[in-house]
Structures are given as structure tokens and as C-alpha cells.
Amino acid sequence: MSASLALRTLSAPPPTLDAASLRADFPIFARNPGLVFLDTAASAQKPRVVIDGVAEFYRTDYANVHRGVYALSERSTRRFDAARGNGRRLPECRRSQRGRLRPRRHGSDQPRRADLGRRRPAAGRRGAISSLEHHANIVPWQMLRDRLGITLAVAPLGADDCFDLAALAASLTPRTRLVSVTQVANVTGEVLPVAEIARLAHAAGAKILVDGCQGAPRMPVDVRALDCDFYVLSGHKCYGPTGIGALYATRSIFDAMPPWQGGGDMIETVTYEETTYQPPPARFEAGTPDIAGAVGLDIAPRFMAELDRDAIHAHEAALTAYARAALGAIAGVRLIGGGARPVGVVSFQVNGVHPHDLATILDQRGVAIRAGHHCAQPLMDRLGLPATARASFGVYSDEADVDALVAAVRAAQSLFGFDGA
Amino acid sequence: MMDLRELYQDIILDHGRHPRNFRCIAEPSNIAKGHNPLCGDKVRVFVILQDGRISDVALQGSGCAISTASASLMTEVIKGKTLPEADSLYRAFHARVTGGAEPQIPAALEDDADRLLPLGGVKAYPARVKCATLAWHTLDAALHGAAADAAVKTE
């Protein structure tokens, strides 16, 4: 602690975000005056550079890719391929690395594409996940379990509804082949010790997949420092378009992975007898890809890089701490989990006010939060809650948003006759 | 902006906080489960049908104030009704919360239908209509479902 503090005072302070002026870059706020948007964890709003960049691409350079010999198609192809190359910025994986990043559909699809060992019988092999996972990091493994006969271990939740590294370690066996965990829990905002989990997984002879859907928009990500085998992210949560995401894996893994869909760009040669496939990443991209989505996913990380990803992390962590302190100070409000330094997300319960009623009452004051199970029903079961209220932040969020949330929560308590009772 | 008090009237808040007939019936003649996957609300409706009349009705489950109050009021107006009377009230209620054309109801049921008026505010909140209708859909499944243990979902 003291060492890092000393470093911080010696080096230049990180740039800070001015959320209020940043809002001018997000047209949604001008079109919706008074909007207090606290549901960025579900999907981030889009900056003008992304909206305009995608529109401009359609207006100026659009044609199908990797097919036409005419100039327009070549221009479109260049733009698409450049976008894929630039995808290394999110997460950071330097050109020297063997890893590749390929534009893919949304994050929920990613783990399914990363499934290992399809070509070999897998009965008896194990996968392990944490208790904090989104359905997208549970259901694909259950589907694989039912298809291949693998088993799926779930590390139990630790004290204070937090991740428990020892419990995860205890769930690993010599038969564990893959550990798949989120970087930032989408319900509680807890940051999992992914680098340590990677060490544990590798020591057990397993590979590790990191679900970066909530992490990538909120913190710097260096896949080499994390030493993860797979990293997945969702474009629309990183200020980019919907319908596209990215899967990072090391080259040797990609080379060993069979295609999962047939046709279009993944083909090298086809006869009626057999087909040979393109090398990765084209092998995994059947049909016409989400070309404009890739263009948008190229622009979004540049937008984040210009803001400085360290600054984004500092901003979101500080705002989360502010929100937890402000909400926690309201009598009758209980915060759910979060761990040591939660980022971007805070889940809470208001005594006597169901989250759905709360969300409706808040909406009347222009405050948009999420209420429900947040695509994490098994976690809700473990917490013994049918639902929580969740506020989540983005680069455009600030303390005034939190203050509006707090005032609205107090108004809901008052309406329901629970003034802190 | 609509006044929230039109949605959360005192009677809604009261029934939401202190729902009536929230208990199990040990040997129901009809039973159904309802689930709203959007918000996680779950209910079970128990009915005792005797000689074509609902002699007892009860609910168990958890939900928001709207769904709890709607379920509670439903049990109060439904108890003692014949099946056709229950169906009439269901149709009248459904029309009221979805903003549809309200059907003619028998004069004898007008007082009961009026007791459901406070839930009419929900039609201004499309995302919440399913909260109000969950218990009624589940009752409908209990009374008319093909299986003895019917299940309904709002999604």
C-alpha cells in the first residue's frame, strides 16, 4: 500500500475525466434532457465518433468484403481488415504477441466459440466457474456438458458475497481443463483477481478464459500481464455498436480450434467430397461479417484510449466508492457484495421497496437503473434474493447522477412509508 | 409526467404490504404456478372449486407491490364466485390494465370490478402490466389449464 502510494506521488497523476463536458460527445444526453443514465453495465451509450463513423462508412466506403475486385469493395475490405488489426487495442495485445483478436458477435456468444477439445471425447473433463457469473458464462458450459459429458464445478461464494480464491482453488482437480471467470462481476462490480486465478489454473494444467464484458470498458487490460488464454469482450459495452464483440486467444489455441459454422469467408477450397478451411481468424467467420460493426468497434477503443484507460478506471472506481458511501448512508439500504475496490457497478436493496417498484419510481424522476436478476439467476439464488436494484456507470457519469439517484431512493422510501425504518 | 400516486394508490400500497389470502391450501382442487422471468416474480395459486363455485382461493409467492397487491385484490373479489363470474372479472380486469375495450359485465359483479379500479393506473406503465396480470393469468391457468398442475409464464 505504502509503496504504491509513494509511486503515485512521484509519478505524474493520471489524467482525470470531466464527465460533465464529456456528455457533449454523447448525443443521447442532448436528445433526452434530464436523463440520469445509470444502466451502462447493460449497454453503454454511444459517442458521436462511433455513431458518425459507422454512418460515414455506410455512406462512403461500404460494399461486401473479401469478394469484389472493384475499388469500392477493396476499400471496404481494407477498412474491415484494419479494424480487425486495431482490435488489439481492446484488450491490449501487442503485435509481437502470438495472440489474435477477431471481431465476433456479442459477448454472450464468445464462450461457446472458445470451447475446447470438441474433436476429442471429453467425458470426465472438468470446467470451473465462479458463483458471480453472467448467464453467458454458465449456459454455454452447460450446453457443452450435455453434449460432451464434461462436468462443471462452481466455486462457492465467499464471505460478504464476494469471490473466494481459496474456494476456486479447491474446485480445481487434475481433470480441470478450463477455468472461466468474469473480470468484473456484472451484478456487484467486484473485481476478481484474474492474474492470480490464471496462475492457479495454469498450475492445475487448465486454461483460463476471462469474461471481460464488464472489465474491458472499465479498466486497462493487458492480456499478457493477466496471462489468460482467452479474453472475451462485448462491443456495445465498450461504447461500440451492438452485435459485435471480440475473442482473444493465443495463436496456438486458435490454430487447434475447428470451425464452428460453415460457408463464406471461412472456406479455402470446397469439393463435394471435402472442404479445407482458412487459417484463423477467417476460419471462424462464416458468411458476410458484421462489417460496419467492426468499423464501429475500431473507433470505440480509440475513443477510450484518448480518454486514457487508467483515467477511466480511476473515474469509475472513485464514482463507485462515492455511490456506495452515499447509498450506504441511507437507512434501510443494503449494498450487495462488491469486494475491496468495486468498479462501475453497485447493486443494492431498499428495505420494503421491491426493486421493480423502485425502478419505476426512479424512472419518473429521470433516473434509469436496472432492476431484476441481471442475467445472473444462480447468483440471485445464492444471495437469496429474487432481484436487486443496480446502478452502473460510464465515462459520462458523475457525482450529480449519484446524488439524483440518492434523492430518488429517498423519495421512493417516502412514498412507500419506509423512511429509513 | 404521470403522478406516481395514481399508480401507487394507498390501497395498492396497503395490499402490497399486507396481502390477503397469502397462504397455502393443503388440498386444492386446482393449482397453477406463474413466473415472470423479467423480474423474478413467482406465484402459486390454490383454488378449491365446489359445485362450480370458488369456495376458497389463496396465493403464495414473492413480487413487487403491484403484483402482490393485484394478487391480493384478486383473491378478495374471486372468492365465492362461479367460474363464469370469475372469467367475467378476469376479462374486465385485463381490459382495464391493458387499455383494451372493457367488456359488459353483469350488474351483480360491478362492485367487485370497481374494487379492481385502483390497478388501472398500471396501463400507463407498459413494462409493469405483466406485474399486475401475473396472478390473474395464473388463476386462469388453475381454473382452465389442461394439466392439474399448470404453469404459466408472462414471457
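Residues 106 and 243 of chain A are 5 Å apart (CA to CA).
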